[in-house]
Amino acid sequence: xxxxxxxxxxxxxxxxxxxxxxxxxxxxxxxxxxxxxxxxxxxxxxxxxxxxxxxxxxxxxxxxxxxxxxxxxxxxxxxxxxxxxxxxxxxxxxxxxxxxxxxxxxxxxxxxxxxxxxxxxxxxxxxxxxxxxxxxxxxxxxxxxxxxxxxxxxxxxxx
Length: 159
Prior knowledge:
Blueprint: H1 3-6, E1 26-30, E2 34-40, E3 48-49, E4 52-53, H2 55-77, E5 83-95, E6 104-115, E7 118-127, E8 130-145, H3 146-158
Antiparallel strand pairs: 1-2, 2-6, 3-4, 5-8, 6-7, 7-8
């Protein structure tokens, strides 16, 4: 798939998270090591306070960019279902500034290592070409399918 084609993929189909907890709007690029996603900061975002996106929201943007990468590879390359993952660690989080409502941010993750079922990625968030956040994130992959997890949630709610 080209970058032009990847922009048309519905990221919600790649993520275990669903509204109102979706923190990326679309993928812009994906290659062997890097993934770039985009997010417009909206006033109704659960991680917005005083007109700015909180550090927790930016951390979630990074995690969901990782999740979209994993989901894309599973669905479009491996022809499997979307798997769940969890944040194993966030290190060296540096926030230069918080993006304001209305700003569009680009989230770039670069995979440094993938060992067993753990991914170590470097992350950078930019707004208008300015780097505003850098971090490292470890993601632990699960064998649980997103669809299987949703079915379990449905059973729990039905009780």
